[in-house]
DNA sequence: CGGGGTCTTGATAGCTCTCAAGGGTCGTGG
DNA sequence: CCACGACCCTTGAGAGCTATCAAGACCCCG
């Protein structure tokens, strides 16, 4: 697990953010955009495997993913790891820590990652002067809650193959929404990540993914997974899709 | 599953709320309390088994639990049910629906329940005129997120007996925090609820709870569970406890 | 007194884990 | 160039955990 590369100065001005024009993100007013722009202090990059935030850290920062993939996880004392959710462009990182004060999960980069860094201590100013943005932060927290609800349903009540199909359909959907994947989407994952997300052993995960491969739904490429038939994956999982709607981008 | 009893007029004024003096809840300023009081339109009661909100409902209300127990859950098409979390006094109900627009989970009463009913369409006024309360709503959403993170870790990576011990220690902790349980805490649950929370079958849940009973950690009373040794339950689960701190009450 | 809900227990089937071993790729150093 | 280690993916076999099936006890209530 390598270290995070130090922050370099800002590069992409919020007004020219490559994410904002995407149809998934709602339009911001000029004052909102101006505040967000001033809220951002710089950018940070990280390589795959780098720890972005660590469980127990007290002075967590607040970030938004600008590009790349990451994941949130917790571990038990004996090392068992559970991946909680994935982070894609447009997702807030470290909100729990910023709001409540201490991180209770860790975050690690899955691909080369670029993060926008925000001034955490100006969060109250955001709520005071831009109620709409305050509402948006709550909106994003509710969205995360929904995804976790879905994951809980999956871990608790879906079979192994349903879980795998759900996870891959879910990640496919999210990747598409933020404009990743021209043609077939490739997800930068190892089977160990999948296992730690689904609550399965690595061996059984492998055998389960093989079934999906044999059905022609996915293809494994070594450190990444190509989605060939997202619709059929969702059907196998019994998953309706996310009803993802336009969301804020902070 | 019986129906919800219709709302009757308000009874408990927020200024005399029996929950607010508890040490778990932060003190509110006079204007905050005044707003919350005006935000509340009445109360609603429900009997055990009553549906408070249903998945897919579009016009969900926003509530806070005043007294009693409830739970949130989702189901798959074939009826498999997963309990996502429990609701105790002081918890918001229906925030996801209020923020995003549509409920993606259902809520059911576990005991006789009293809810404070709020005017959902004044939520934006809350954010506009009381930034501190807006922050509090986000705080509560983050708290829920944390609990879900813990549950995911449990479902994904704990064994059956660890999961059961975790769940009961968790509910014990929450009950204590809101002043339930003089002496030993009794949790109004059936083993079916436990099974649907832990992602286990009812039979195996029974056998697992028996082990905890034989170790003298709990006692099953028919439709409820008495916690005899919460510390040992937490130890069995490998759970540190919640680091629960003072929280807002809306 | 019957019926429904809850809790309990044993037996068997089936799913998942662990153990073990091997192949492949990639980057590094001899 | 080749050896080597590290990491990732794959597969088989047997053990262990969990689901399902089945049956019965208990309680409350109409």
In short:
The first copy, chain A, is of the alpha+beta class and 250 residues long. Chain A folds into two domains: 14-149, Jelly Rolls, CATH 2.60.120; 158-237, Winged helix-like DNA-binding domain superfamily/Winged helix DNA-binding domain (Arc Repressor Mutant, subunit A, Orthogonal Bundle), CATH 1.10.10.10.
Keywords:
homodimer, 250 residues, alpha+beta, Jelly Rolls, Arc Repressor Mutant, subunit A, 2 domains, four-stranded antiparallel beta sheet, 11 strands, 20% strand, globular, DNA-binding
Question: Explain this structure to me?
Answer:
The structure is a homodimer of 250-residue chains. Chain A has 250 residues and is α+β, with helices and mostly antiparallel strands. In chain A, strand 10 (218-220) and strand 11 form a beta hairpin. Chain A has helices at 30-39, 95-100, 123-129, 131-157, 160-177, 191-198, 202-214, 230-237, and strands at residues 40-46, 51-53, 62-67, 70-75, 81-87, 92-93, 106-109, 113-118, 186-187, 218-220, 225-227. The model of chain A is unreliable at 1-6 (pLDDT under 50). The first copy, chain A, has 2 domains: 14-149, Jelly Rolls; 158-237, Winged helix-like DNA-binding domain superfamily/Winged helix DNA-binding domain (Arc Repressor Mutant, subunit A), CATH 1.10.10. In chain A, strands 1-8-3-6 form a 4-stranded antiparallel β-sheet. Chain A has a 4-stranded antiparallel β-sheet with strand order 2-7-4-5. The first copy, chain A, is globular. Chains A and B meet through strand 5, helix 2, helix 3, helix 4 and helix 6 of A and strand 5, helix 2, helix 3, helix 4 and helix 6 of B. Chain A binds a DNA duplex (30 and 30 nucleotides) through helix 7.
């Amino acid at each position: 697990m390598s270290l995070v590369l130090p922050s370099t100065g800002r590069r992409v001005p919020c007004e020219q953010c490559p994410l904002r024009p995407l149809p998934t993100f709602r339009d911001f007013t000029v004052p909102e955009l101006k505040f967000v722009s001033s809220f951002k202090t710089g950018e940070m990059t990280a390589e795959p495997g780098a720890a972005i935030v660590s469980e127990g850290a007290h002075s967590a920062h607040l970030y938004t993913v600008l590009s790349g993939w990451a994941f949130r996880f917790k571990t038990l004392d004996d090392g068992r790891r559970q991946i909680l959710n994935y982070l894609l462009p447009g997702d807030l990182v470290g909100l729990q820590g910023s709001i409540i004060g201490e991180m209770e999960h860790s975050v690690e980069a899955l691909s080369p990652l670029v993060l926008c860094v925000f001034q955490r201590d100006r969060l109250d100013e955001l709520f005071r002067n831009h109620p709409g943005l305050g509402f948006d932060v709550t909106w994003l927290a509710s969205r995360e809650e929904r995804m976790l609800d879905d994951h809980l349903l999956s871990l608790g009540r879906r079979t192994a193959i349903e879980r795998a199909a759900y996870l891959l359909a879910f990640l496919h959907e999210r990747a598409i929404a933020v404009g990743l994947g021209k043609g077939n989407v490739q997800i930068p994952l190892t089977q160990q990540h999948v296992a730690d997300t689904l609550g399965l052993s690595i061996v059984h995960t492998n055998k389960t993914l093989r079934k999906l491969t044999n059905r022609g739904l996915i293809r494994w490429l070594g450190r990444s997974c190509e989605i060939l038939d997202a619709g059929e994956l969702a059907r196998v999982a019994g998953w309706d899709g996310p009803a993802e709607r336009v969301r804020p981008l902070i």
